What does this fold into?
Amino acid sequence: MRPPLALGLETAAFRAAGALSRLARRGGGTTIPGKLLWKLDPGAIDALARRLPRGSALVSATNGKTTTTAMVAEILRPSVAVVHNASGANLVSGVASSLLAGRDAELGLFEVDEAALPEVARRLDPRALLLANLFRDQLDRYGELELLAGRWRKAVADLPHASLVVNGDDPQVADLASGASAARVFGIDDPAHARPALQHAADSKYCLRCGTPYDYAAAYVGHLGDYRCPKCGHARPSLDVVGSAIELHGLEGVAFTLSAPEGTCRAELTLPGLYNVYNAVAASSLALELGASVGDVAAGLGRFSPAFGRFERIEIGERRVLMLLSGLETLVATGARAEELALRFAYAGLPRARIEVVGSLEAALDRGLALTPAGDELAVLPTYTAMLALRRLVASRGYVANYWEAAA
It folds into this structure.
């Protein structure tokens, strides 16, 4: 057991390093303390996690983990002192930095990078683990989904006492619950918002047991939905927490009914899209597993504001830029693969006369603003890296996103 005095001296030193980083304007201090701790004394991360009276909970997914974790934090905040890596620093170093900062926290709530999950889980020994989805958009970093799912499976097996929360609508993720002693399974059940079959490029469309293509009674987002193998019968498990009766209100938000063993409520979000219903149902499931009530869930989702870059508006003169981190009257494509992006939109059916390719990000922003009438809104759908570059660009012009101060 590590002496309390030694741990106290270490944490004070590493916190000071973060403060110096902020003073020197070398960053927000959200990763440097954790990087130092991880390099010099990795065991201190385990010791800091053991100090949390209510333990910790982890959230991982290829899509939506930042938003989902922030939703859980908002649901729990009135009743639990939560330490949360709100900046999105989700590697071991980022989690370590959050633990260093959480002096009076009762519960640790951390989003975790897909590949970092096994190491973080081993060190924190969480009381709950939420696994939300596996999409192929991270293949450039992690390889095949089956490889990543295998790593997750081992991480789950190494946590026999953790509460497992999984997306039943994702075949790879739902299957992780098959070896668990207990799991809470969530999903969506609303045929009015479903397609009757998968899109051609969908992920995880072959049966995990026999390789036969799944039949889908309902496909919601990508490969997420109500699936069944016509040959061996492998199918979506029964859902414990369900989002249904969904109302999509364009860019203004969504509403849905949440049904769980703890009760039923009507939830409303200021975030748009069916994918955010998945985020909200996932967050609700974990929050309920951690002891929140259905009333807490409804209130927390109603208060929730998006994480930076996920759905924020920036006033630029008489116009607004709407930033949607994902993945049109006129498409302005820019970046290193602008031509490929334009071609994909053309194949998807957008008339080529409404597609423009602009080389630089700054010129593309200016062109998009020029195409946007005064008082109207330009929607921007960047990658994460491009989102950061765009934020720096608009900040250099003296404009500030309306969620920047809260997230910085």
In short: The radius of gyration is 22 Å. Residues 4-23 form the longest helix (20 residues).
